[in-house]
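User: I'm curious whether this sequence folds into something compact or stays loose and floppy. Could you predict its structure so I can see for myself?
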Amino acid sequence: MFLLVLNNVYYMEEYTIIKAKNLRELRSRLNNAKGIIIVEGGDEHINRFVLEDARINILLNPENNPGMDFMHARNSGLNHILCSIAAKNNKTIGINFNSLLEMSERNRIISLGRISQNIRLCRKYNVNFVIVNIISKWQDERSTKDLKTLGTVLGLNIKEENIIKIRI
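Assistant: Here's the prediction. I'll summarize afterward.
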């Protein structure tokens, strides 16, 4: 059971956050998941499975793949095919703000470039986009204004409904 914070109002919602290394592990954890299901992406196969599966609501951090970027484009975890699948299945793509804070400076720069490419793709194909703040201790909590500012810097027209704070 997690606590959802929207517009500084606390709601009790059931969230399941799944971090899986491969598809087999993801499928086994998905059987026990309840409520709103958030899957942390990264691998191409996991990203595609999440966008095609009807039980999963949010794909979090699809850009967290360990591969190198291509010559003329970033390896951001999304492409035009995955974005059209996400738009058709009414999926949401998310950024985990806490993972950006925990990265080294070099990795943060690479990740922000990949995120901005994903935002351009999501805007083109009308895919929903959210910023997620997962709060496990009081130092992790950020204000809604900070999260909206991050979205504005990255090129999002962010609203308060597009910011999710989850207390673990």
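Summary: The chain has one domain: 2-167. The helical segments are 23-30, 44-52, 80-88, 97-102, 105-124, 144-154.
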